[in-house]
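chain below, 129 aa
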Amino acid sequence: MELINALGRRKSAVARVYVTSGKGNITINDRPLETYFKAETLQYIVKQALELTNTMGMFDVNVNLTGGGYKGQAEALRLAIARALCKVDAEQYRPALKANGFLTRDPREVERKKPGQPGARRRFQFSKR
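prediction:
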């Protein structure tokens, strides 16, 4: 199997994934998954697409992650892995991934701060006198 790459985004996080056939190693920014994402819940989010398609030990995943926080990075990585699996074999993996919502890019972004306000929607306290 040749090298397959895919891109996943969430909030301001960007995950570039390179998938090759291997033993199931997931490397993020030259670090193992367990040291990059210490929380079990984030590791679970990253592995969801692989567990759903029963491809946990079949592919090596090499990742470049930038931007955002840990949760956004984990969800961007899940989307990128799901897209890469569709490139590997769309007929076999796509229906299950699509049914669980792993191929949908979450469009929610942080609203920008407006001038004359302390936040995006928050106003300064109004004083009548």
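The chain is about 35% helix and 20% strand. Residues 4-99 form a domain with the Ribosomal Protein S5; domain 2 fold (CATH 3.30.230.10).
thats it, cya
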